[in-house]
Amino acid sequence: MLTTQLATPGRGPHADRPGGSGGNTPHTPARPTWFCRVDGQPWPCGEARLLLPVEFRGNVPGLTIYLAGLMYEAMRDLYQLNPHDGPEPEELFDRFVAWGATRRPVVEGAS
Length: 111
What we know:
Elements: E1 29-30, E2 35-36, H1 46-55, H2 60-81, H3 89-96
Antiparallel strand pairs: 1-2
Protein name: Flavin reductase
Region (Disordered): 1-32
């Protein structure tokens, strides 16, 4: 089987973003459940989705790579918690990665 030939993955990126300002608790995931530590919503919560692009300052590739790494970590955690009823990969992709890739609007007549 192919998986026996692959190296065991490392811990990956740490979910330490987005940082809170002042004395506020940052909207980071509580592992292994991947719910927001502040509002209890599935992470990335609405507030994290607003703060992360600001923190990455328009670096869409960097944000996408960061979110993809966290998606991988969430998959590992969530499937270990519930191997038979874990979330579908498409659901996790939409939750973690798809929203972060901002696209430019199509302009009619532009070449």
